[in-house]
Amino acid sequence: MAGSSIKPTPLLKDELDIVIPTIRNLDFLEMWRPFFEQYHLIIVQDGDPSKTIKVPDGFDYELYNRNDINRILGPKASCISFKDSACRCFGYMVSKKKYIYTIDDDCFVAKDPSGKEINALEQHIKNLLSPSTPLFFNTLYDPYREGADFVRGYPFSLREGVPTAVSHGLWLNIPDYDAPTQLVKPLERNTRYVDAVLTIPKGTLFPMCGMNLAFNRELIGPAMYFGLMGDGQPVGRYDDMWAGWCMKVICDHMGWGVKTGLPYIWHSKASNPFVNLKKEYNGIFWQEEIIPFFQSSVLPKECTTVQKCYIELAKQVKEKLGKIDPYFIKLADAMVTWIEAWDELNSSEGKPAKLLNGTA
Amino acid sequence: MSVVNIKDSDVDIIIGALRSDLTSFMNEWRSIFSRFHLIIVKDPDLNEELKIPEGFNVDVYAKSHMDHVVGSSTSVLFSGYSCRYFGFLISRKKYIVSIDDDCVPAKDEKGFLVDAVDQHIMNLTTPATPFFFNTLYDPYREGADFVRGYPFSLRNGVMCALSCGLWLNLADFDAPTQALKPGQRNSRYVDAVMTVPARAMMPISGINIAFDREVIGPTLLPALRLAGEGKLRWETMEDIWSGMCVKIVCDHLGMGVKSGLPYVWRRDRGNAIESLKKEWEGVKLMEEVVPFFQSVRLPRTAATAEDCVVEIAKAVKQKLGPLDPVFARAAEAMSEWIKLWKALGSGSLPL
């Protein structure tokens, strides 16, 4: 049964890193200061490494540009995208913390219907620290939330839930639409505050957006590879989608949960739909094959770690999606490279990434 | 009605009366119900005459009708909360909305009265999306859409067969939960409707539902009757059982089930601790029910809701029957129900 007392949410300030990809500037951090100041930031600077990105004073951070990524990963740096926010996953790899929160630099603090500013990070932490319920849908949504519980008919043996691996937040104002939808509805804004967190059922896929996302790095980190996008790649704006589909298949296999819903952030910038259309174009066709692939993917029970699951998925990608386009063969190889790089940087005997990075 | 192409005459509002004085209930719903045809079915165990206020287009059915139509030995199927199923059986409308008689209209967060019927019909007449989860919930709602990454081939959606609404104030908790938190009332208005994904099991509460009788009618059935079943929802599991069947059938036939809006306001009634003392069997039975429904496989040849129910009944008899007589009886009731449905569920009304 869900607890009824309201305990304060732990800050986790020494256990959580905030990963921010940026190519412009970090002005948005000023608005987040009261919520983020106590946390360590990992900034992944995309684009021209000779440009200096100023981090507002008072934040504790590491910053990596393309030169750093190349230096730290060597030839394996090929798996990290360039000129796409997919590069953020480098931040996940070099982090040493248990939890990651990642946010885009055009996302600001939203207000709830009462006008109060939303502490998105606090809500993500609540989501991650309470169990998920992927095996049976609760019609009153997250039963561990204050004021909620499991409904009549919910089996007691399933009320302990499972560990939560990912917390997927949403966006007010500019919704995360694809280019065709943006073109058809350029003025649509998301004004609906849905006061719910819910677990996405086991066996169900969803489009994971990387704009406002938190996860348990210790559990699912290696699966959060954001793929090959941007410069030199035939597709863009599918980085987080790809990571989300791989992640969900693995979470379902490992018995972990994925939550979606609160918290909301305020998404301020609508990217150019024509530019987006060009980036997404191949993805729109390819996803018709990609989705059935993930829906029918079975991971053998010998895959007992996330890395093993991911390598197996990469094999299946190469086998089954390789025939759609040679891109998938490259992607499958990059997935393996990612795991190799992850294991190198995160093995207990390996040197911590900090020693290799001179810019922080 | 705000929904295009749906006539008021396509809808029946079916109320199971477990209390005799429906005056306040009907008056609270008047502005919403009065333009529809209503079927009120009296619990056959209720002895008092029903008190129904004037001004409604209503047909009332009681034990005498049940005995006449199905025979007095079969009319036991319709005792207690299950009386509403008699209404489902004899209705000839496409859409049914059914609400417990201890619920009244809720107010939304802006203070406006929620037209639960309108919202249910909206849910049923817009597609469901069970094959891929949309993170902005129902994409057909005004102000929402499919998000980036949602495959285009799945954006047509499928038919929505059932709409499961929610409850403010007294939520549909089981007796142990409410007994542990006697003061807990649901005040959270979650402004969302969503499709419950295919293959996800869920507890479909019968308190506030609507369905497409034409496609799913026979699947809402009175079958699981607890030995100590009573006249409070804490003392029943019939709707939960029926709902598990509905979800399996919808998943098999490629139709959707939506959950969320509309809310109704459920009045405080009864005592959870008393109910718990009297009836805890239901909670235990769910432990057997869940693995059973997880493993049920319907053959491809089961192409209609009736076929599916027959198959489920067979499986219940085989797999659950030996575990507890309540399941053996449920299997029998399901077979009986399908016979009734085939004989009386369509064509001109027998009454």
Give me a quick take on this structure.
Chain A has 11 helices and 9 strands. Chain A is an alpha/beta fold and 360 residues long.
**Helix run count of chain B:** 11
Our Rg estimate of chain A from Cα atoms comes to 20 Å
Q: Biggest interface between protein chains, with counts per chain?
A: A-B, 60 and 59 residues
Number of strands of chain B: 9
Number of domains of chain B: 1
Q: What percent of residues of chain B are in strands? A: 15-25%
Amount of beta strand of chain A: 15-25%
Query: Distance between the terminal alpha carbons of chain A, to the nearest Å?
Result: 46 Å
Low-confidence stretches of chain B: none
Query: Biggest sheet of chain B, in brief?
Result: 9 strands, mixed
Report, as a whole number of angstroms, the end-to-end distance of chain B. 29 Å
The count of helical stretches of chain A stands at 11
Which architecture of chain B does the CATH hierarchy give at level 2? Alpha-Beta Complex
Mean of pLDDT of chain B: 94
Percent range for helical residues of chain A?
Answer: 25-40%
Question: Would you count the extended β strands of chain A for me?
Answer: 9
The major β-sheet of chain A equals: 9 strands, mixed
> Helix-strand pattern of chain A, N to C?
EHEEHHEEHEHEEHHEHHHH
**Per the principal axes of the C-alpha atoms, what is the gross shape of chain A?**
globular
